[in-house]
Structure formats: C-alpha cells, structure tokens
Amino acid sequence: MATLDFWFDFGSNYSYLSAMRIEALAREHKVHVAWKPFLLGVVFKSLGWETSPFVLQKLKGDYAWRDMARQCAKYGLPWQQPGTFPRTALLPMRVALIGADQGWIAAFTRSMMTLNFAEDREIDNADAVSAVLTALGLDAPAILALALSDENKLRLRRQIQQAQALQLFGAPSFISAGELFWGNDRLEDALAHAVLKRR
C-alpha cells in the first residue's frame, strides 16, 4: 500500500482543511496516511520569522481569513476565525505522537482542530486535551503521562529536526516517494502521485 506523509501543525489553518479531509480521500485512493505533527513555529524562526506570515503581512492575513471562509464552505466544514492566531499547541503535538503509535491520531487531530478552528477554543492545556481523549474512549491520564515523558519530548524535537532536514517551510506538507507537495490545494495531487508510484 502506498504511503503519504502528512506534515501538519495544530495551529495551521490550512492544515485544518487537510486534516478534516485526508482520511476519506486516502481510503478512496487506497493510500496509507502517516501523520507527522511538527511545530511550524520552529521552522518559521529558522527562516527569520517570529510568527506566521499571515500575522506579519496584514494583507496576506486578511486574504487568508476570507479564503478560509470560502474553503470551509466549499468542503462543508465548520469555521470560526480564531481569536488567537497562531495558537500554541505543544501539548497536543506531544499527545499526537502517542496517537500515531496507538492508531488514534486521526480522530484526535480532527477533534483538536475543530476546537481551534470551529469553536475558537484554546487547545494547549490538559483540560482540553483530556476532554478530547476521554470523548474518544481513551485513558487520558495515562496518555498525558506518556506524552510528557522526557523520551516523548525528545521524539517531538527529533520530528521537528526531520521536518527541517526535509526542508519543509509550511504546513500542510505532503511527501510521496520523496516528492514534496505543499498546501491543502495540493492534497489531491499528492495522493495521485502516491497512487502513481505504487504502480
């Protein structure tokens, strides 16, 4: 089965669009999705930016929010512009790594993204994360303990280093057989490439 690596950040608005769509599309294409959470802010800082380009460039930011409203309407997704952007999501990132191991990262990511981009709620706290984990029928205290372990913290740092080694510069990013596709509007192209490379 072909694999598509999906690099995303919980604070990335365009990652929200992809996270809500990718599983269904991947099933149609018979492609396995490898979910790769990483902290885009670290990448931005390495590029000399202190925050998102949508904040640094007001015109671009204004466009992005209008575009998000259009895209969410197009895909039938709920949308509420976050009052805080980009939202910090260190704890959800660490938890997502556990979810990648245990097979519930997709459902967890969709729930956390919904809190951020459909309900305008803070997500970088134990209460929000625990509520999502519990709603998924998972053992929230045990998972949080794993997520906050030194070993898992190091895993996230290494994941970010891997993203930098791959020269990722934004999210969402998709990698199929070494080929990079950037942006929600390239999700379908990335899946098609994965299918092509499987043949």
Structure characterization notes:
The chain starts with a strand and ends with a helix. Helix 1 links the parallel strand 1 and strand 2 (31-37). It contains 10 helices and 4 strands, in the order βαβααααααααββα. The chain has a 4-stranded mixed sheet, sandwiched between helices. The protein has helices at 13-29, 40-46, 53-56, 58-75, 90-102, 105-117, 126-135, 140-147, 150-165, 187-198; strands spanning 2-8, 31-37, 173-176, 179-182. The chain is α+β, with helices and mostly antiparallel strands. The mean pLDDT is 96.
Keywords:
globular, 4 strands, 199 residues
Main beta sheet: strand number and arrangement? 4 strands, mixed
| Beta strand % | 5-15%
As a whole number of angstroms, the C-alpha radius of gyration is 16 Å
Question: How many separate helices?
Answer: 10
Low-confidence stretches: none
In helices, the fraction of residues equals 55-70%
Strand order of the largest sheet: 2-1-3-4
What is the assembly state of the chains in this entry?
Answer: single chain
From the helix content, strand content and strand pairing, which structural class follows?
A: alpha+beta
Shape label:
globular
Distance between the termini: 10 Å
The average pLDDT score comes to: 96
Tally of strands: 4
**What's the helix-strand series?**
EHEHHHHHHHHEEH
